[in-house]
Request: fold
Amino acid sequence: MNEISRPNDLDAFWMPYSDNRYFKSHPRMLARAEGMTYWTADGKEVLDGTSGLWCCNAGHGRKEITEAIQKQAAVMDFAPTFQLGHPIAFEAAARVAEVTPEGLDRVFFTNSGSESADTALKIALAYHRARGESQRVRLIGRERGYHGVGFGGMSVGGIGGNRKQFGAMLPYVDHLPHTHIPTMNAFSRGQPKYGVELAGRLEDLVALHGADTIAAVMVEPMAGSTGVLVPPKDYLQRLRQICDKYGILLIFDEVITGFGRLGTNFGSERLGVTPDILTMAKGLTNAAVPMGGVAVRNGIYDAIVGGAPDGIELFHGYTYSGHPLAAAAAIATLELHRAEDLPGRAKALEPYFEEAAHALRDLPNVIDIRNIGLVAGIEMAPRPGRPTARATDVFRKCFDDGLLIRTTGDIIALSPPLIAEKSHVDRMFGTLSDAIKAAA
Ligand SMILES: Cc1ncc(COP(=O)(O)O)c(C=O)c1O
Reply:
């Protein structure tokens, strides 16, 4: 078939993380977006309760970002960053370093969260090798962790469903237990009270494997994709202490928690623990152009770069690392975050959002609600023998009623753009409440 245009043919696009067969027989097409709203191809308004996919933190269609991309595309579409540079990539890194935690001022650019996770793990391994500790090859993740879909992130990640189709994982990987304790922490607001001792399980892994074999521990400061697990009080502090005690690097995967989601630039600031390496993506460019990044403690950069013989210091990078259009989008996005104090807006709205979320507590089948920043997870009891079916019904009804939510298992996650107003919060939880009742 040589015809160029086959507008109604859905066959060719193999959709990611999707029920392709269902979608292609019941398509739901989003055609336009602005502010808090999507419009479907047939003109229906849909309130964005999920910032796209946890990424359009500044809301959709931001003119400042669009214009920055357009302008850069007209000046220079692409230039390599292997052994060459262009000013806007350096400017973007410097702007990112202004919002990362103090002392994490060196930024490696990637194109996605998955690439950021794998890059962070590789940097951790290279760091130990540069310091003469090449036996530190073990990587520790956590059950229910999500670090994207590369082999590194998938292996260190702890979601069985994401691994079982793919056979062997990376060797030398182990996992901490997850922190979900519904018997003790159900309906927590902010950080749950119980579970700090779960961080102590890192000591068990140290005893099992030997401290000097472990390169890094990677966790999400707040686990999003698995269905919103907020870290117990003092849990991250305890992980930090144990990592320091044994010379293990602590990596925070801040792909979701970065750029204002928890009411601060990064989750690390809100939760009071600074990692050695921090990954980011999504909100970095407001998702207008794909981009990710890894910020590292300056000493890590110095050890790898300063300690290398002449020539290339780190044999890693992507054709599009620091892509000019992504760099332009990142600079414009960071400027919006600063000018509009988007983290501050999220923080100001959090109490209202929290109340609205917890008001769903007595609805049928709701077994837990948890929240922090502008994130809420609402967990429902599964239909007997049919896990995920109830959440799928809620998702579909919400969409039909004009609200986009995200579901994982039977957990609903809400993470609206940080420009949300109280009226949006009311609409969001009103529509969701009706859908949960309808799915009883
Ligand atoms: C914590 C975390 N890490 C990594 C990723 C993967 O990002 P991407 O889909 O951009 O590869 C995600 C995506 O949701 C994430 O939440």
Remarks:
- Residues 112-114, 117, 146-148, 220, 224-225, 253, 255-256, 281 surround pyridoxal-5'-phosphate (CB under 6 Å).
- The longest helix spans residues 113-130.
